[in-house]
Structure formats: C-alpha cells, structure tokens
Amino acid sequence: MNIRTQLTLRYIGIVLVVLLAMYFYLATMLKDSMSTRITSELEIQAALTREFLIEKLPATDNFTYDAIDPLVDKLGKTEKARVTFIDLEGVVWGDTERDGAALRAMDNHLKRPEVQDALQFGSGIRDRYSNTTQTEFRYYAMPIYKQTSQNSEGTLIGICRVALPMEAVNTAIGNLRRMVLLASVAGLILTIVFSVFSIKIITKPIEKLTQMTQSLAAGKIDTRVPVDSKNELGQLSRNFNLMADRMQEQIDQISEEHRRLETILTDMGEGVLLVNGAFEITYANPMAISMLSLPNVYVGKALIEINRIPELQTLLQAAEQTEAVAFAEIRLGNLTEPEAEVTVVPVATGEEYVIVIHDVSKERQLERIRADFVANVSHELRTPLTTIRGYAETLLSEDATRTKSQEQFVVKILNHAARLSRLVSELLELSRLESGDVELKRTLCHLNTFHAPILDVFEPLLEESELVLKWEIPESLPEFSVDQQLFMQVLVNLIDNAIKYTPDGGTITISAEIYTSEAFEESNITSEEMIVHVQDTGIGIPMESQPRVFERFYRVDKGRAREMGGTGLGLAIAKHIVLCHNGQIWLESSLGEGSVFHVAIPL
Ligand code: ADP
Fold it and tell me: What is the distance in A from the centroid of ligand 1 to the CA of 553?
C-alpha cells in the first residue's frame, strides 16, 4: 500500500469516527432535551387538569359517564393531549380518545403502572404503548383530592392522567438522524475529495523522490527531482539533488581515473596481470595477454592451468610466503635466454598479487649482438697484431744500421702492439665469460697452492718497486672447490692492481677466512663461504668511483691507468669469474690509505 492510500484511508477513518460520534451525541442530546420538555409540559398540564377536575367533578358516589367524559374531552381539546379520569376502583369515567359504548367497555385501569405510582408516590410517569390507541404515549398520572367540610386535607377521589403521544419526539429524532446522516455522508464525500487532492499535493514530491532514488539505485545517475516548494519536502528534494550532484562528480572523477589507468595499462610496454589469493587471473592488460598467450576467456582461471610456466608459479609462491616483492628472470617462450623480468608485488596481504612482466628479449638480443661483435673484432685483430709484433721484433733483433730515432719508433710499435694484443686477449676472455659458455673445471684445492705461482708472476715486479707481499693464509683453512686457472686469474688481476696503484715501499697483504651465515633459519642449515682479502696500502679509490670500478673500461684516472699499462678490463674479468662460481666481489677503500678487495666463494 503506498503512502497516498495510507494517508487517505487514515483521513477517512478519522472523519468517519468524528461523524459517528457526532451523530450519536446529537441524537441522544436531542432525545433527552425533547423528553425533558415533554415531561415538564405534562407536569403543567396534569396540574391544570387536576385543578380543573377538583372543581368540576361531582361527588364520589355520584360519578356518571355523562357528567365526567364531556369534562375530560373539553380538557383534552384545550390541552391538545389525551386526558383520562380513573376512579379509585380503576373504572375509567372519562377519556379523550373514547366515547359512549367504547368508553364504557374500557378495561380496568387500576393496575396501570403510572396509576399505581401516582397512588403510591403522588405522581407517576411512564412511556408505554397504548393498546387503546395503538400508539406510544408518555403518561403522567396524579391523584385527585377533594376537600370537604370534614376533611380539610381532602379525600382521594380518583386519578387524573394526561398523555402526550411520543410520535412527535420519535419523528423529530428520526428527522435529525436523517439530517446528521446526510451531513455525514456529504462530509465524508467532501473529505474523500479533499484528502485525495491535498494528499496528492503532499505525496507527489515524495513519490517523485522515491522514483528518483529508484532510478539512482538502478544506476541512472543523471536523474534529478524538481524543487517546487520551500518547505521540508523542498529542502529534502534539494538535498537529494545535491547528493546526486556530488555522486555524479565522484563517479565522473573515478571514471576519469579509471579511464586514465586503463589507457596507461593498455598502452604500456609491460605486461600487467592481477591474480587473487588462489592465483586465479582477475585482470590482464593487452600486453600480458599477448606475452602469456592467454585464451579469450581467462578471468577466474588459474594461472598455472592457462600458462604452464612453473617458474612463474614458484615466484608467486615466494611472494606469498615472504609477503614481499619477488623478482626473477623467466623464460616465457622457447628461447634459451631468459626473456622477461617478472616482478610479483603482493597487495592487501595475500589477497591479490600484481605481476609485472618486462620483456627483455630485445635487450638480451642487443647484448648478444654487441658481445658477438666485440668477440669477432677481437678475433680478427689478433692475427694482424701478431704479425706486426713479429716484424717489429725481427726489425729490432736485426743487426742493421739505423738511427736512434728509428730504433725508438720500432720499440714504440712493439710496446703498443703488445698493449693492443693484451687488450684483445682480455676482451676475448671477457666475451667468453659473459657468453656463459665457460665450463668450470672445479677441483678441490687449498688457497696456499696459489702462493708459488703468484710469486713466480710478481716477484720481479715486487722487487722493482720495493713492495712487500704478505701471504697470510693459515694451513688450517679448509680446501675449497674452484676452477684453479680462473681463480688464479682473479688473484693475478687483484694483486696486479694492488702493485700498480701502491707507491714504492708499500705492503700488499693476502689473507682469508671462513664466514658462516645462518641462511636458512628454520632448517638450521648454515651456509659457509671462503672469503679472500687482497689489501694494499696504495692510493685508494674515491667513494664515487667505488661502485663503478667493476665496469669494463672504467678507470678512475685514465692517464695514470694507461701509463701503468692497464686496459680497464681486469676487475670486470675478475667479477665475471667470481659470478661464475656463484660468489661475490666487493671492495672497501679510502683515499690515500689503501684498498681491500674481498672475494667470497661459497663452499
Ligand atoms: P686497469 O686495467 O685500468 O687496472 P681494472 O679493471 O683492473 O683496470 O681497474 C679499474 C680501475 O680501478 C683502475 O683503473 C683504477 O683506477 C682502479 N683500481 C683498481 N684497483 C685499484 C687499487 N688496488 N687501488 C687503487 N685503484 C684501483
């Protein structure tokens, strides 16, 4: 039931109750007042009748119909009422309604209740249906006392009774009832018409508001209610419109942001994927769809089912376990090189994960091309360089006559050719290491096995520059597994640098230790590493250059390094060899005090 019907029914209900109450109240009021009026009228008439009869009635033993009935008829005519005279035996001697034989045939009236009341209490009043006249009457009876010379109080001689028909009262009440009923019906009709219209005025805005909220709920955000009043309803409508405006603004803003995000996600070069806690795909941008070759329907499907890349699953599990960002290079296609850098970011603690896939196949390809180019060029340079060196050496050794400057030129050619061929072989070595083709020939050995060969290489140099090499490696250290030739190269490169960049009279110290770290806390497994330190008392490396010295061709002081015969590849080669052993290399240095290079090889 809508509010309009509810209100209308309530209105009608209230009016109906009021009208009914009014109807009954008026009817009773009228009946009471008319009845009181009739009673007092009857009382007056009865009193008059009694006085009249006391005077005119003959003596008790002399009652005749002919003497009394005309008296009574006359009284009835003047009073416009039914008047009856009854003697103490109950015989009716006169009645306005009966004459002659009919009067004589009237039954005994002594037992009439009003007559009994009059005899007992001095007056009697009764509403009764009269059998004689077949109508309803109100009777008022009074005893008549006649004064005689012997009795001044008077002797009871009979009862006079005055009666008025109740018909008038009933008709008047009936009329009034009809009138009130008519008025009620008219009032009711008026009320219905009025309430329908006035309620319509009230409920119309409410209905409109309801409609608007319905269409708002259905998503029609541009609906507004017309504001046509200044009362509370108008205010409500205004507030609703304001609220809708605000919502519209916010939705517009969100849509705009959504559009922007959508554009970014659609056009970006990275693949972006959203998966839920069960690793089911909830979103994928076009790049991710093409990278992972997702089918048409992928939302809600488990990632592993669609794209069988176990590494991706492992990465997701890692992110789930650590609740932190996980990163890996993953091969998405069938190529041998890892093609993509994949980052998994947990959002909302384990409920969602963002997977960002960065395709690096092109970069890898470029790197390969560059490395191939360097390797090829180096290779091609090798033969001509050997020839140049050969001829220059021959020229020098020949016993020919030549000027001093000619000899200087040949020496210069020889030196530069030597430098070039060192550079070429180092480049080739670096390319070989970078290509990943190097197969490690690991053997178990003690660090001290490298002592003698190192001395062989560096003794002349050390003596020349008056440097001291301290070999402080205890025999108690365990053996470790390395490719001896490559590890020797690392040591040679580091010690060569230490000698080059330490002024005469300095010290170079080689030491080592075992480092134990608790890598896997839960399983009590510890990881052990052999850490070798190469320390010098040389010129040191400025802070800003420290992170870069392992880059190829990076030199702190280009002129000085060239003078020293450096190529700028020594540390890059050392780093690659260490990485091939799954190890790490890093340094500590302060300018003017010296540097320490640390090499860690897992045992
Ligand atoms: P280079 O062949 O020029 O020595 P490296 O790759 O071996 O090339 O070293 C790169 C640069 O790092 C060097 O040019 C030098 O400036 C700096 N460097 C390396 N080792 C040391 C050291 N022990 N003391 C000071 N500087 C060093």
Answer: 10
How far is the centre of ligand 1, averaged over its atoms, from the C-alpha of 413 (Å)? 25
- Tens-place pLDDT, residues 385-406: 999 999 999 988 887 788 888 8
Quote the ligand 1 centre to 363 CA distance (angstroms). 28
> Which atom of ligand 1 is least distant from the CA of 558?
14
Cα of 558 vs centre of ligand 1, distance in Å, is 10
Ligand 1: residue whose CA is nearest its atom 23: 498
Characterize 581-595 residue by residue with b for buried, 16 or more Cβ atoms within 10 angstroms of its Cβ, and e for exposed. bebebebebeeeebb
Give the nearest ligand 1 atom to 552 CA. 6
- What is the distance in A from the centroid of ligand 1 to the CA of 45? 151
* Among candidate residues 272, 57, 264, the one with its CA nearest the CA of residue 156: 57
pLDDT value of residue 490:
96
Candidate from 192-196, 366-370, 523-527 with smallest mean pLDDT: 523-527
pLDDT at 334: 55
| 225-258 per-position pLDDT tens digit | 777 778 887 888 888 889 889 989 999 999 999 9
Please tell me the predicted confidence (pLDDT) of residue 524. Answer: 58
Task: Identify the burial level of 321 via C-beta atoms within 10 angstroms of its C-beta, where 0-12 means exposed, 13-18 middle and 19 or more buried.
Answer: exposed
Answer yes or no: are the C-beta atoms of 97 and 69 closer than 8 Å. Answer: no
Kind of pairing, strands 480-483 and 594-602?
Answer: unpaired
User: Is it the case that residue 22 has pLDDT exceeding 80?
Assistant: yes
Nearest-CA residue for ligand 1 atom 4 is 566
C-alpha closest to that of 519 among 508, 509, 527: 527
The answer for residues whose C-beta is within 8 angstroms of residue 251's C-beta and 6 or more apart is 221
Q: Which atom from ligand 1 is nearest to the alpha carbon of 538?
A: 24
| Rg of the chain over all Cα atoms, to the nearest angstrom | 66
- At residue 489, the pLDDT reads 94
Q: Quick one: CA dihedral 450, 451, 455, 456, positive or negative?
A: negative
Nearest CA, atom 11, ligand 1: 555
Per-residue model confidence (pLDDT) at position 333: 66
One-character DSSP codes across 345-407: EEETTTTEEEEEEEE-HHHHHHHHHHHHHHHHHHHHHHHHHHHHHHHHHHHHHS-----HHHH
Predicted confidence (pLDDT) per residue in 427-472, tens digit = 888 888 887 778 889 999 999 999 999 999 999 999 988 999 999 9
User: What is the Å distance from ligand 1's center to 555 Cα?
Assistant: 6
| Distance (Å) from CA 80 to ligand 1 centroid | 151
Q: Which amino acid residue places its CA nearest to atom 18 of ligand 1?
A: 497
Task: Give the separation between CA 317 and CA 332, rounded to whole angstroms.
Answer: 18
Within 6 A (CB) of ligand 1 lie 497-498, 501, 536, 538-539, 541, 549, 554-557, 561, 566-572, 595
Q: Which secondary structure element, helix H or strand E, spans residue 468, and what is its range? A: strand 468-472
Partners of 442 in beta bridges: 483
Please report, rounded to a whole number, the percentage of residues in the chain having pLDDT higher than 70.
Answer: 97
